[in-house]
Write a structure and sequence with these properties.
The chain has five helices and 20 strands. By secondary structure, it is of the alpha/beta class.
Length: 488
């Protein structure tokens, strides 16, 4: 009996050692190189990659789909002909391809046109891991691939690559450990200039559906583009990508709330870890800290109490809507508020480090199936209305600075009778109640108090210098005026 147990233990140890060394094979896909078995013939009529676009240094190996500047765009090049792809997949002669395409996407064939209408064309700015699909013998065959920066893709409303434009191949989220991949450069896909295994990116779904995507203009890096989801560039608006914005105080927010607050200012989120923390994990600080000026797409590393979350993908939110567009003014703060406690630590964002090797043969591809499901929800919350009720605080602590809805400089401000706390024991009879920080989404049309919480009753009215907005920004992107041209 003892001998049998010893043999089993040795076998377990051997298998464990082998599994630790196992690498997932990933096929490199270079910009402008035709696939061997595509859904649609790559003759340049369906989509065009931007060859020679140098991969950007990644501030984090894992990035969420709402990250400003994650993708690039241009208004001078037709990168993806969505109408042509619709015609191809709805042509009765391509019925079997349409069935397989829809099966991978998770829809019925009659929903293909509507599904394509919800996607948005962009250019990859980073070498990006995805699950790709060939079409062989009437079937969609999955394989893991690394798409070179410059490849044109359609992304969905969570910012995930969904279609490779040049060939119509459906794409899914990469669902393996990015640190345990071996990249194969073969079939004409030679290792491209600028490739660095430490800068490979895996995209995770945005915490909330997007209304528009903030792109960096690949023809003019000083310009950024707001592109409404489901449009192909005809409704684009631009703003100054060099304009700097101060890092807001994020301590006391959840990870998802902090990410959305930064995204509204055109700033990216970085995190020092192999996995993104739970969406409801409490943020304890940031590096650089509050008040530091940063330009569009620059990153802020968040320090998070991961133990405070309910686990990856387990958070939920009662909020609806999407991350605000860069160009929405940041929330105002009371002059009497105290900065939240907690400070970030200077740490470098974690990055995947796939190994790479060049091969002249055409074998050894991974054919795992499945896709990463959206994870990292945000905690439920309630909002106050003037005259009664309070908003529940986000998980993981309470920040003393109170945030308000976005503002516009259009309407004369109301008269202010008092903005300081009083010593009276009489309950307040005017003004909206004080609230704790909530989501930075521009969803409420009513003003919220900008006073910090206190042990006694207060009388608070909207700040005299910042009248409230009449509602969220339109889906067509910023209009006229500086506040609508980019992050304020």
């Amino acid at each position: 009996m003892v001998r049998r147990l010893a043999v089993l233990l040795a076998a377990v140890l051997i298998l464990s050692g082998c599994s630790e060394q196992r690498l997932f094979v990933v096929r490199a896909v270079a910009a402008g190189i035709p696939s061997l078995a595509p859904f649609f013939e790559e003759d340049g009529s369906l989509g065009k990659d931007r060859r020679g676009l140098a991969p950007q240094e990644a501030h984090s190996g894992l990035q969420q789909g709402n990250t400003p500047g994650l993708y690039g765009g241009t208004r001078d090049q037709q990168v993806c002909d969505v109408d042509r792809l619709k015609d191809f997949l709805t042509d009765p002669r391509n019925r079997q391809k349409a069935r397989e395409w829809a099966r991978i996407v998770g829809i019925t064939p009659d929903r293909i046109e509507d599904h394509l209408d919800d996607l948005t064309p962009v250019l990859l700015r980073h070498d990006t891991l995805v699950k790709n699909h060939d079409y062989k013998k009437g079937k969609a065959v999955p394989y893991d691939s690394l798409l070179e920066a410059g490849i044109a893709v359609l992304v969905n409303d969570q910012g995930l690559p969904a279609v490779k434009c040049s060939c119509g191949n459906p794409l899914e989220a990469f669902d393996k450990d990015p640190e345990k991949v071996s990249v194969k450069f073969e079939d004409g896909n030679k290792k491209w200039a600028g490739y660095e295994k430490s800068d490979v990116v895996t995209v995770k779904p945005s915490p909330k559906p997007l209304e528009r995507i903030a792109l960096l203009d690949v023809d003019d890096p000083d310009t950024a583009i707001n592109r409404p989801v489901g449009t192909t560039g005809e409704q684009d608006s631009t703003f100054d990508a060099t304009k700097q914005h101060e890092v807001p105080p994020v301590a006391g927010m959840t990870f998802d709330q902090a990410g959305q607050a930064l995204a509204r200012l055109g700033l990216a989120v970085a995190y020092d870890g192999d996995e993104l923390p739970p969406g409801d994990a409490a943020v304890t600080g940031s590096t650089p800290g509050p008040g530091t000026p940063l330009a569009f797409a620059e990153a802020v590393t968040l320090s998070v109490d991961a133990d405070s979350g309910s686990g990856p993908g387990s958070g939920s939110s009662s909020d609806s809507g999407s991350v605000g567009t860069p160009g929405t003014p940041p929330p105002a703060e009371s002059d009497t508020s105290t900065p939240p406690s907690g400070s970030g630590t200077g740490s470098t964002p974690g990055k995947g480090t796939p190994s790479d090797e060049e091969s002249e043969s055409g074998g050894g591809t991974s054919s795992g199936s499945g896709s990463t499901s959206p994870g990292g929800g945000t905690p439920s919350e309630t909002r106050s209305t003037p005259g009664g009720g309070t908003a529940s605080s986000p998980a993981g602590g309470t920040a003393t600075a109170t945030e308000s809805t976005p503002v516009e400089k259009t309407t004369p401000p109301p008269a202010s009778s008092s903005s300081a706390p009083t010593a009276s024991s009489t309950p307040p009879t005017a003004g909206p109640p004080s609230v704790e920080p909530t989501s930075m989404e521009p969803t409420s049309m009513e003003p919220t108090s900008m006073e910090p919480t206190s042990t006694g009753p207060t009388v608070s009215e909207p700040a005299a210098s910042e009248p409230v907005s009449s509602g969220p920004a339109s889906s067509g992107g910023p209009g006229s005026g500086e506040a609508d041209q980019g992050p304020a």
